[in-house]
Amino acid sequence: MTNPNESKPTPQGAAQAIREGRTRLGIELGSTRIKAVLIDEDCRTLASGDYGWENQLVDGLWTYPLEEVWRGLQAAYAALAEDVRSRYGLGLTRIGAMGFSAMMHGYLAFDRSGELLVPFRTWRNTNTGQAHERLSELFRFNIPERWSIAHLYQAILDDEPHVPRLGFFTTLAGYVHWKLTGRKVIGIGDASGMFPIDSTTRQFDQAMLDAFRGLPEVAAQPWDIADLLPEPLVAGQDAGSLSAEGAKLLDPTGALQPGSPLAPPEGDAGTGMVATNAVRPRTGNVSAGTSIFAMVVLERRLVALHPEVDPVTTPAGDPAGMSHANNFTSDLNAWVKVFSDFAQASGLSMSEGDLYATLFRSALEGDADAGGLVNYCFYSGEFLAGLEQGRPVFARGPESRMSLSNFMRAQLFSAFSPVKIGMDVMTKQEGVQVDSLVGHGGVFATPKVAQKILAAAFDAPIKVMATAAEGGAWGMAVLADYLGHRDQSLADYLDSRVFAGVASTTEEPDPQDVKGFEAFFDRWRQGLPIERAAIGAIPLQS
After folding, report:
1. Where is the Carbohydrate kinase FGGY N-terminal domain (predicted)?
2. How does residue 469 score in pLDDT terms, banded at 50, 70 and 90?
3. Which residues of the chain does CATH 3.30.420.40 include?
4. pTM summary value
């Protein structure tokens, strides 16, 4: 296997692979971008395309219209096909294997005829607190507010009229896969964000299904919960193939041929684990985007019930613990936009990448504790911080040391603070051991900065691999390639065929930075009443 970062395919070799259909396609529907990546049999990127989109707050709930889902998928695929055409002079007609992933959790509910019953409810919604509490107590197993079963149960508790009409519910990745193949299946990692998984059977937990059935308000429904859920599949299992209707749906030009085998659809947590080679016990990754999660593959189930930790699985079905924060880059990006506007007003010409790099690097020059500044990056509610809604807030005392470097350090510190809450539970309360933790996402594109700050936040070495920029869409394409390598475990396949010899850098925690982050974190937690006051004082604009 040729490592994807050791060499690049020659144009002639890439063109031949594309012409012969020896390629793998991964498409991931993230919170702000839909990205498509085409790779060869050595997992080297051949072409890519993307489409930007944003969630909408409609009637108090975060959503994306399904029309925008397909508009975005078609646009991302069209951009990929155009990239293939411009690079290699070829039309894209045959793809060897493909897979689709998306933001985890949420609620897409359909009736028996396949009609959407209510607008898509994303992971970002935090209106399911009552369901979270009741189900977590019933199962003695944490059911986060974002999980699909929490959305369903909250709808039952709220006596929503669509509930008796339910025929099927799934995640965004499961929905896309269903429409492209006709199969109602889901990758087990994504499934674990719908309903608890039994890692022994690699299926939904039967005892918990029975407990849910036993709730009087559930027993009164005209359906059985098992009939509503998609079928969980582990990585490498047959998940169907691209139908003629699906090919036309993805590529309305008609150039794309049907028949490509599809990998089980996964969530962004699972593709992040694959893209960072973090599927073995005691390995983990931190995937940072609009939201952020820190994931550790566990050697055993957690002993106690911890609302701060999502009990999920790897794409192979092994148990993992995830600290998930709803908010990460939205506030940071808004502040960078302010500096971009200033640069333009001053007649300065800077690329977006250079602007981010300049601002991020300044954070390393700040005081260890960010000079007494504090920031709350909450665009939406944050369970880890006990917030049902969010309002971005920057605050400081009159004695604080206001400077660009301290300001940017506070921005980055605050972005990592919510996810630290759950990680501290795993490492400090449950004694979870972590041999390696890999940073993943655009925030790590500027060398060392976010890496050093995360090492301080978790007091652990943080590795960033050369594949970090490839992203979840690349990870999904790798899972599509794994369809042909089921003779190996997923972990062995990644070690031997994908990541052997991958270049990486590791930042060890600096004791002064660790001490500074802890001081900031204490100040951040003590100042949370500021955020709650802002929620009460600043109304949401419709």
Report:
1. 25-241
2. low
3. 11-268, 277-467+510-541
4. 0.84
